Each structure stands twice: as C-alpha cells, then as structure tokens.
Amino acid sequence: MVRHGATGPGDTLADQFGSFGRGSCLAFPTGAIFGEEWIHIGEDSLVGPYVSLSAGMVPGQKMVTDPVVRIGDRTMIGRGSHIVGHFSIDIGSDVQTGPYVYITDQNHGYENPDEVVHVQWPHDIPVSIGDGSWLGTGVVILPGTELGKNVVVAAGAVVRGVFPDHCVIAGVPAKIVRRYVPGSGWITGSGSVQATGHVLDSPSGSPPGSPPGSPSDSTPLV
Fold this sequence. Notes:
2% of the residues lie in helices and 31% in strands. It is mainly β. The protein has a single domain (2-173), classed as Hexapeptide repeat proteins (UDP N-Acetylglucosamine Acyltransferase, domain 1, 3 Solenoid), CATH 2.160.10. The strands form 5 sheets. A 7-stranded parallel β-sheet has the order 1-4-7-10-15-18-21, with no helix packed on it. Strands 3-6-9-12-17-20 form a 6-stranded parallel β-sheet, with no helix packed on it. Strands 11-16-19-22-23-24 form a 6-stranded mixed β-sheet, with no helix packed on it. A hairpin with a 4-residue loop joins strand 22 and strand 23.
C-alpha cells in the first residue's frame, strides 16, 4: 500500500503542483498539502511520509509570490516535517533533513500588548536554505533565516538569522559552533569571522540572528 500510494510525476496530485520534477516522489501517507500550484519541487527529490506542505493560510488562497515554496533537486525532507510557506521558502538542491523539522516564513506579531497574539497581523520574511545543507531531527527554521551552502544544523536547534557557507550551528537560539576557514580548515566557534565583527551578516541595528525589521529585544516565536 505504501509503495502504490506514493505520488510521482504524472499522478493526479503531482499535476496540481506548480512543478513536480522527474524522479521526485511524495511518500505515502502524505501530511496536509494545499496551495499546490504555488509549490515547486525539483527532480529526484523525496518528501517523506506525513510531511505537510502548504502555501497560504487556507486552500485556494491566491498568493502574491510564485513559488511560495521551492524544493530543489535531489533533496530529501524527513518524515513528519512541516514546510509552511506564505511568501518565500527556498530550499536548495542536495539538502537533507531529519524527521520532524519545521520551516516557516511567517510569525504572528505580538507588538500590541492589549491584543491576543493570534489576531495580530503576521510578519512574512523569506527563508532560504543553501545547497548541500543538513538539518537534524527536530530543527525549527524561523522567518528571516538564510543558510549558506553545506551548513549543518544540529538536532533540536531553533534557527533565525543569516549564516555563512560551511558552518555548523547548534542551540536555542542557534549559533555557530564550528566553521571552515579557507587556509585554516575547521575552527571551533565562529573563528576569524568574529574578528571582523560580523559573526552573522545581520541587518544594521539588529543583533546577530535577527531578521530584518525585528526589534532588538524580541523573542522569536516557534
């Protein structure tokens, strides 16, 4: 049943996607899937069982960007993960995730103390995950995250901010714990980057790891 329930190119569900590349597969059973026309999947990628993919708040919503969610070639999304797009989530090629990873480009606002959080206007900030990266089990990727190429994210990390190529990040909030420096090899911590004053390429006026426009004392929501 699992084999015959999987979705591949040319199947009815696959045809509803913005694009669904040759050799790609949605494993059975799927999680919640809607907004398919705004979701693009490259070639030879595998989306594991119970993975939820969505573009927008509700089925049938018209989106202002296309793609809202893009998954590159030869990428594997682990069992039970959630990719919840509203504006732009770009997952590169040759990316692998462990199970139960959560990726979103939207948080509710919480600036008005007199309003409950869920009725405040949400903020959409693009997310990008570079080619060749690995996200461990239970990783949470928050709005505004930009991961370079070949970034390793430790299991359970909560990630927000901009991180360079070839680094290992871990923790809550996630920070660089190892980084490859050409000519020096792998260095514990952020290495020579710290000497420049730019461990992360954070926006002016925001602390490292903060998305553009966020208040400096804000706490990321999951």
